[in-house]
Amino acid sequence: MNFLLSLQELQDDIQDHLHNLEYINHTGQELLQKTSPGEKVEKLTRDLAQLNTRWTDISTVIDNRVSQLENTIAQIKQYKVTPSFGVEWNWS
User: What is the pLDDT of residue 87?
Assistant: First the structure.
């Protein structure tokens, strides 16, 4: 259960920093509009794309892991309430 809490905290932390990502993208786009085409523009464009891809990837991975862990915990809890097993597990 501690692992689930840790993942949920990480998920919340990432969401809390979303405004930073939006600011970086906005500022980057402003710089791109003010800068003449060339290597620096291409590099900034690549860097912004890479940052956004990484952000999306990590957010997706964490969301999936939280969901999988929640499903697994729900399945485990079924063993506690299923009388046919004759065993009651205590996860407290």
Answer: 55
